[in-house]
Amino acid sequence: MDEVIEIKYAPRVQQQQIHDLIDSKRFSVVVAHRRMGKTVSAINHLIMSAVLNKNEAPRYAYIAPTYGQAKRIAWDYLVKYVEPLGAVANIAELRVDFWGRRIQLYGSDNPDSLRGQYFDGVILDEIGDQNPKIWTDIIRPALSDRKGWCSFIGTPKGHNHFKELRERATKDEGWGLLEFKASETGVVHAQELSAAKAEMGEDKYRQEFECSFDAAVEGSYYGQIVNKLEDDNHIQDIPRDDICRTITAWDLGMGDSTSIWVAQIAGSEIRLIDYYENHGVGLDNYVKWLRDNDYHKAEHILPHDVQVRELGTGKSRLEVLQDAGLEIRVAPRMSVDDGIQAVRRLLPRCWFNVPKVQIGLNCLRNYRRVYDEKRKIFFERPLHDWSSHGSDAFRYLAIGLNETASTWGESINKPARWVV
After folding, report:
1. Are residues 338 and 396 in contact, defined by beta-carbon separation less than 8 angstroms?
2. Contact (Cβ atoms closer than 8 angstroms) between residue 225 and residue 231
3. Alpha-carbon distance 262 to 367, whole Å?
């Protein structure tokens, strides 16, 4: 008789629904209120899938926004529930191995740790806090060989890529959706919900417990403005018009991503028609993208550190880009706070061409202050995460355009007064 191994996990009704959804749909989206138990169900589904998988050397991944979050939120659960299986736990790599199978925890803040792997199944937890490219550029290809599955789980964070995944799950074949509102699940006692609402306020409560995507990301610098732009139909398909003055604005990364916004100026309107972001490639890659899309003749606004000379070549990136034939304008130095205010003044005049600039727009929605979990307060400085580069590039655009006119009443089509 086969030995019976019992894992001490008794799913709630809602957790069982999550298991059923992931089993029935290759790609699934779970929008769940706080304290619903989604992480516990996610970890147990990875374990169950690994046990039942008959392929050679199955591999599964749980991915949180950061490595630290993965360790803090999911590691103890994983070790606890695989203990009856005789699993070997490796805390240095946040992985467990049993029966030739492996489940590992990752943070999407280190995407290189995920490259070059294959997966039979993946959970992307709090996907709204993760760079959307983690899915399109890394996880989706990693599932191809084994025809693996993926589930996106989380609590709403405004009108961002998590909301887009939710909409996709309502209509695309092979996708499925579950939503769990606290007022409907009964998991959190009604008295506790009432107290939470009184302390958190209506918007925050609706986001965290009623799964509303309408509220701006908490601590967001631009979320409410972008939501207003969407309400006013400033986010739509916008045709390119090369009669207009064209400007690009860059944020230059060294080891990080480099981002480029492409804007066209039509009267008082700023039309954001394109966006590009990449990681770990040289300047020639960005020059090639500009030429391939016929943006190389535009005016290019770059931050002041473009003038720093590299020790290896003795050349600055400014000189490299000028040698490539680009007309470079260096944005004046300005504090981050002043730059953020410049963006806030500029945004009401902006129109965004989706889907081409969707990733950059998501950056603006998610750009927010650092939050102190212990003291429950926001610091007056930006959080550096995946949204920083696109938001910084937009800040240089706002600073640069502000330099082209003495007041907003003047046409920003006037020739710029630049000093390089």
Report:
1. no
2. no
3. 19
Among all chains, which residue has been given the structure tokens 């991915």?
A: 63
Q: Is the pLDDT of residue 67 over 50?
A: yes
* Domain 230-402: top CATH class: alpha beta
Residues 246/262, Cβ–Cβ less than 8 Å: yes
Lookup: tokens for 197: 């609402």
For CATH 3.30.420.280, the residue range(s) in the chain are: 230-402
What are phi and psi for residue 383, nearest 5 degrees? -75, 130
pLDDT tens sequence across 23-37 = 999 999 999 999 999
Cβ atoms within 10 A of the Cβ of 93, count?
A: 12
Pairing between β-strand 175-180 and β-strand 27-32 as defined by DSSP bridges: parallel
pLDDT band per the 50, 70, 90 thresholds, residue 9: very high
**pTM to 2 decimals?**
0.74
Mean pLDDT of the chain: 90
CB atoms within 10 A of CB 13: 9
Task: Give the whole-angstrom CA distance, residue 122 versus residue 150.
Answer: 5
Separation of CA 19 from chain center: 25
Nearest to 185 by CA among 408, 414, 28, 32: 32
The answer to whether 274 and 295 are in contact (CB under 8 A) is yes
User: DSSP letter at 305?
Assistant: G
| Contact of 140 with 168, CB cutoff 8 Å | no
Where are the CATH 3.40.50.300 domain residues in the chain? 13-209
Determine the topology of domain 13-209 in CATH. Rossmann fold (3.40.50)
Calculate helix-pair angle for 190-200, 202-209, nearest 10 degrees.
Answer: 130
DSSP β-bridge partners for residue 90? 95
Least confident interval from 109-113, 123-127, 295-299, 313-317:
313-317
Q: Are 229 and 222 in contact (CB under 8 A)?
A: no
Are the beta carbons of 220 and 158 closer than 8 angstroms?
yes
